[in-house]
């Protein structure tokens, strides 16, 4: 670790983050954030961070700026500030490790992180959960215009019953990225990626680690 415990705590507080620490010195740092209606304490983020920590990584789940301002409700006019919050979390992670930094999030949080990746990069792997390709029932309103500007390795973990995009639509979105990509399809899962038959965190982490092997 490059910072002392006090500096780390202050940095976590600044991004409203919760750390999942591995048993030994971390191999790298993962920072993940939440969807539009959620927060850092959602079940999906918690399980994914547990999985990363079990694999020897420091994993941090954090709140976006709009959620730091109010405990409930969706974002409204906060995209720029939220992207700045993502960039702040990535910079914090970089200060904690000499190893790789992975960043991403669920739904809206993943979209905000992907926009930071498109404009600034800064992460070794981008990991997206239930990327909102379009609003439910409105495939003509694609949220993919920035994806060709992403050049780093990217993982999409997506449910086959997600109303924000079919597996085919996610695969087409991934093809827009100018870097290595992998789509992890979770059969039967909806937007929350809950599954009784698949270990979603393990599958997502496995895919991200495969991406690291080609960085």
From TrEMBL:
It comes from the Bacteria. This is KANL3/Tex30 alpha/beta hydrolase-like domain-containing protein. It comes from Mycolicibacterium smegmatis (strain ATCC 700084 / mc(2)155) (Mycobacterium smegmatis). Pfam families: Abhydrolase_11. Coiled coil: none annotated. Residues 28-197 form the KANL3/Tex30 alpha/beta hydrolase-like domain. InterPro entries: AB_hydrolase_fold, KANL3/Tex30_Abhydrolase, NSL3/Tex30. Gene3D superfamilies: alpha/beta hydrolase (3.40.50.1820).
